Structure formats: C-alpha cells, structure tokens
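Lay summary

Proteins are chains of building blocks that fold into shapes. Our project writes down both the chain and a compact code for its shape. Here are two examples, one after the other.
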Amino acid sequence: MKRHLLIILIIISGVFGADQIEPSEDQKTDIFEKEGEPVILKCDYDTSSEYVFLYWYRQYPNRALQYLLQRGARRESYSHTSDSRFSSTASRSSTELTVRELRLADTALYYCALLSPVIQSL
C-alpha cells in the first residue's frame, strides 16, 4: 500500500532592491504525492543581475532549515546538492526542484531562495 505525502512550498522572498522570487503561478502550494513517485516544485524569480544563485531548503516542524541544493543561473553554472535524489533546472526567470523517489521523510515545508550579488569591476 502506497502512502500519500504532503509537501508544502513556501518561498523566502528576500526582496533586495528589485530582486524577488515566488511560487510559479501554476504551482500548487499543497502537494500530495505517493511514495516512490517524483515531484517537481517550481519558483519564478526576477533580478537584473547576471550572477544568480538559487537555493532550495526544507524545514520539518520545530526544526531549522535544511539545505538541499544550490544552483547557479544565467552566467553561473555551479550546482551542488546534499542528496542525489534532488536535482534542479534553471532558466533566466525560473527554477525547478525535482525530488525523485519520494519518501515519507520528505514531508516538509520547502523553500526556494535567490541570491544575486552585486559584482563590480575594478
């Protein structure tokens, strides 16, 4: 018997200047999927920077944020994940987190975050 999991997507909308990140319009914030199935979470972002770093975290009740993944976008191609079940894609204005082979332990709040540092030439 397969159990259903609940994943809730929350966004860290750290607006610095004109930068912002939020769930895609078509992204449900309460997601129910079966164990063993994949799930895709999507956020849209807006920044004038060409140096973009996108992060995904999750949080269990009464716990600190848990780092899942970092991905560069635009001029940055760096990628790092804490678990091979997590992968990410990014375009100029959106990012997706794919969680493969869902487990009951994946039931949590999920956060996406954006960092676009100001790079100055000397």
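And here is the second example, written the same way.
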Amino acid sequence: MSEPRPLRVAFIHPDLGIGGAERLVVDAALGLQERGHSVDIYTSHHNPTHCFEETKDGTLRVHHIIPPFPRSLSGKLHILFAHLRQLHLTAHLLSPSAPKYDVYFVDQLSTCIPFLRHLGNSRVVFYCHFPDKLLANGAFVEGKKNKKKVGLLKRVYRYPMDWLEESTTRQADIILANSNFTARVTKSYFKSIEQPLHVVYPGINITAYETTVNLNDPDNIAVLSDKPTLISLNRFEQKKNVALAVESFARLKSQRPSQPLRLVLAGGYDPRLEDNMLTLYSLIDLAKSLSLTYNVITPPSNDKPIKIPPLNMTPHDPDVLLLLNFTTSQRTALLSSSSTIALLYTPANEHFGIGPVEAMVCGVPVLACDSGGPTESVLDGAPEKRTGWLRTPDPEVWADALLEIVSMDPSERQALSDRAKARARDVFSMDALAIGLEGALVEAVGMGDVPRLMWNAWMMFFGFLLAYLLGPLVLPPPTK
C-alpha cells in the first residue's frame, strides 16, 4: 500500500492549556508531523505559562486567535461564550487571507463544523472526547440518570446548546472517539447520529518518557524524594475526585504507620477557574482533617509562579505534595523514579484517561476506578496478566488495593512492569494514534467536494456574521 500524500491539516481546539484533551491534540499533531504532514493548531486561548512545552518552543505551529468574548459572564454562560469564541476563530479561518487546508481536525467543540464544510468547502474529522450534554449537570454515570436538580432557567438555556452540539457533531464527515465507552455512550444519547464512531485511542510519545532525567534540575529536585511515593496526575477539578487519593492514602498510612510514604498530587491549575481554586482548597482542608502535613508548590522554573497565600504548609518532607502545573520534566521524573510505587487514577466514568497509559509506559502499577476508559487500558484479573487494579471508588477498597501494591515483592513488581510497558507500546503508542488519525483524514479528503446546501449555509452564515461582527459591540475585549 502506497504512502498517502502529505496533507495540510488544521487543528481547532478551544483552550490549549494542560489536560488530557490538550495532550492528545499535541501528540496527534506531533505524530502527523512526523509522518510528513503539515500541521497548524488554532486556538482561542494559549497561555505560555500554562501549556505543554511543544506548543511554545517552536515544535508545533500554534496560532492564538484572541476573541472579543470572555470565557464567561460573572461565572455563568460558559458554553454560550465557548460557542461564540469558536465562531470568531472560524471566521478567521474562513477569511480570504487565511491559509487553505486540505482537512480540519476538530475536537471538544463542534460548533465550527457546518461552517467549515459548507462555507469553506472543507472536509472535517471530529474527535469526540465526551458529549458536553452529559457533563453539564455533573458527573455522568452510565446506566443511571443524573439526579442533580436543574432549574427551569438552566434547562431552557441548555436545550438549544445540547441541540446545537448534536446537530453540528453529526455533520462531521468522520467521527472518532477516544474509547469504546465514549463511542457507545455518544451513540446512545445522540440518536440522530447515524454514522458509526470509530475508536482511535489517545497515544503516548514513548520516547518522551525514556529521556534521562536531570537530577540537578531545580524543578526535579523540588518533587523527587527517597520516600516511597504514590502519585496522582489530574487537573485540579472536582470531577476528578482527587480526594479519593488523599483519603485512601491516609487509610494506608494508618495501616502501615512505620512505613515512610508520601502522596504527590500533580496537575494543571488555572487560577482563573473557580472550580480549580475550590478543588485545591478542599484538598488542603481534607489533608488537615486527616492529620496529613502538606505543601503546595509550582515549578521553580516558572517565570510567573502562581501566588499561593499562607496556608500553614510544611515545606520540608510533607505527607502530601500538591504540585501545580508540573513541567514535562517533572512528570517524567516522577513516573520514572524508583521511589514511585503506584499511580492513583481517581476519576470515575472517565472517557478515556491518559494517566494510566502514562504510568504503564514507565512500568508503574496503576490503581483506577472500575468504570469508563480505564477498563479498556488497564488489565486487571489474574496476577500473572494484570497491569493494574480496577476498583470501585471507595477509600476503604482503595486502601486495601494500595496495601496489596506496596506489599508486592520485587519479582512481582518487575513482571507487572514488563507487562505494562509491552501493552502501552502495542496499543497506545504515538504511531498507533498517528496512523489511526491519518487514515481518517485521508478518508475524509477522499470524499471530494462538500455538497452545497445553500439555504442551510446562508442561515448559518447569518448567525455566524452576527456573532463575529456584533460581538465586539456587545462585549468589551477581555483584559489580558
């Protein structure tokens, strides 16, 4: 089979910060570049102090198109402004002076799809992480109705937003999903989508985890320790349920009082987001209530460190270290350290979850919830086959699993490590991700010109023009 011709690909991602979705975008772009394709990433928000290094060091071409709309209005209307911000970005891409692309890769927000197709005559591949419709009212649990009470005003507000998400998603030429779990749930709740969703698992740049760690780097010195360490890599968001790691860690320490142990909670933190701030402070309060010492740090190399008010912290050798906006070097140092004995992946019903795969690449045992994407990445069962433990999200159950993990003898640990590394390479490599995405992009381009739907196109163009031209008159530009 001949190699496909090089494509000009534009990625559209709303907020290029630090998170699982952003890591996928970065890795996908890197993988396609390595296969000879030209890639540009367009985003409405990119903060050089809160992003992956490949997006600021010149490895990837990132175009930050600053919108006239804020992220929210007094903490409300997030999804409405997200749509408007993406429409503004789409206007830039459809302007006569903008570069032309063979195909667009869109993820998270599908608002732009019909405009790119019918006004730009371009094919679009949409990557579904998980429907926003199912996350708007709290954590999604498959097979259970969300019992959170929603007021009439929010239902009225959400109805057109949910309709827009489904109606624009189904217009993509090809729809991909990050797991069978996401594909199944999306098809179940978006009834109008007739085409199948193809699963392309997020990939890992394995070589990035095999680099030699500079032990003299101040960033790495700040996070490494000789004490046996449990780590959690998750954004500081309530839905990630990082409190489960703290509670199960405290129970483990009570069962092993003589064994020195520590817990590192590392993740993306954005002080602009109330959820991030409240989650951080709730974790600190939880640590205090469990008589655990703690410290909160940011990488010493950060030119603009986050201001942390006095919190009665323990700077030297705390039980719990909260690391905000870790660097790539710190991530690799933690995962490859001989002191690291397990990764705790706390979100339930996670759509995929890159954290367990990162741990398996480095041969670190994984403890994750027994739902969602981790059930596809982590193998649990017979001891001679497992790469980790899948357990119900209960602190007592997790503490028992942790006790089993810390009690493993060296030969058991080495055998599990070898199995985990092999599975990560076989199923979740960058090559597997890039080949899967490349196949979808080539297939979309092969569909030829987009059929002209004049009436729908003009209706969309009218709404599009209103959002783009009248937006700056309605709202002042956000302050930098």
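What can we say about the second shape? The longest helix spans residues 454-474.
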